[in-house]
Structure formats: structure tokens, C-alpha cells
Amino acid sequence: MKKLFSGLLMIILSSSLIACNNNSTESSNESVSDTTNKSVADFEKAISKEGSQILDVRSMQEYRSGHLKNALQADWTDKNEFMYRIQSLDRSKPIYTYCFSGVRSSSAAAWLRAKGFVAYNLDGGIAAWKRENKTVEGSANVKQVSLQEYQSFIPKDKTILVDISASWCPPCKKMEPIIDSLAAHFEVLKIDGGEQEIIVRELKITVFPTFIVYKNGKEVWKKEGIVSKEELEVQLR
Q1: CATH topology of domain 34-131
Q2: If we measure between CA atoms, which residue out of 30, 28, 46 comes closest to residue 38?
Q3: d(CA 70, CA 93)
Q4: Could you report the per-residue pLDDT of 145-204, keeping only the tens digit for each?
Q5: Out of 68, 169, 175, 179, which one is annotated catalytic?
Q6: Is 172 a residue of the active site?
Q7: Burial letters 171-202, b for 16+ CB under 10 A, else e
Q8: Which residues contact 81 (CB under 8 A, 6 or more apart)?
Q9: Known catalytic residue: 99?
Q10: What is the CATH number of domain 147-236?
Q11: Does this model's pTM top 0.85?
């Protein structure tokens, strides 16, 4: 009888220990969730702070259907695109990700944290954002520029740099200060490739940003992605 009681006591203690461990795990998971997944109210408050980076990880078609103001875009399901675009994000500033329901962006945020970024996710995604009547932006009503109109912008007697970028493109944001500094000394034409679908299609643009130099109306140089100020100056002289 004494042995049986002792064995029973051990089982009860073991069960209690397991229960404590399980509660500890649940508490720990809940804590992680609370710090990395933000409610609509907390997300809105966080992205209003200076220096925050908002990342829409949906496809371009989804982004155009409505997105958060100042959001950059990098499709989580397109690994090449995602890897290319996140290289231009600032590691010293927090990143706030979102998708439609929060599933893709939660995975993207976890991946970013594993790579050394500080990343948070919008719990419930943009669907939750809309349910709380928060505003979104879109580009569905932007007037499209034809190829003929674009060609009329290119001077026949000057050198000009055409910058085909997108407001939601991280590498484009990184290039902005360089292009702005060049615009003080050279002729620069900026085209929002995220909105001007006809121009992008007709010029066969596949990467943002893309830079084209025209001299006396003729294309003489073209390059995709991040370009140094020095290389651009050489091509413009």
C-alpha cells in the first residue's frame, strides 16, 4: 500500500509538472504573438511614427486593389522579387508587414526577424483594417500616358535621364536622393511605373527602377536596379 501511494504521488507530481510546462509554453507563445502581431489600432499607431517602414507582401494586382498609405510592395510568394526588394530596406528601422488576412505577412515578418530585422505584422491583414473603416489608397483612376506622349517628352536636342520607378518599390526609394541630386544639374524625367502600365509594357520594363539615358532623342544607355551616382553622371556627360 505504501508503494502504491508513493507511485501515485509521483504520477500526480509529474502531471502537475507537465501542466505547468504547458502553461508556460502557452504563455510564452502568447507573449511572442502579442509583440509581433499588432491589432489594427496598434498597427495604425506604430506606422504613424517617423521612420517606420510599411511592407505590403501581396501581389501587385492585390496592391493595386487598395493599399496602406506609403506602403512598399514585395510579393512574399515570389521569392526572387521579395529578396531583391527587401535588400533596400533599412535594418535600423522597424518594418510593419501586412497582406490580405495576415497569414503571408506573418510568415514574411518571421523570416525578416530571423534575418536580423525588427518586424511586426498586422493581425488580420488589410481585411481587418477595412473592417474597422480605415482608409486605403489605390491607383485605379490614374490617367495612362501613351507611348507617343512619352516619346514627346524626350527632347531632340538634349541629354535626358528617364527614371522609371514606383512609389512602392524599396530600391526606388533608395535611389530617390541620388536622382533628386542629379536633377539639380541634369534633365530628369520621372515616370511612375507602378501606375503607368502602358509605358512599362511598351518599353518592356521588368525591373524597378530602370534608368534610360537619351541623347538627342535616341536611347544610348539603359540599366536596371541600384546604380551609383558616379555611373549615372558618366552616362549623362
Answers
A1: Oxidized Rhodanese; domain 1 (3.40.250)
A2: 46
A3: 15
A4: 999 999 999 999 999 999 999 988 999 999 999 999 999 999 999 999 988 989 999 999
A5: 169
A6: yes
A7: bbbebeebbeebeeebebbbbbbbbbeebbee
A8: 74, 75
A9: no
A10: 3.40.30.10
A11: no
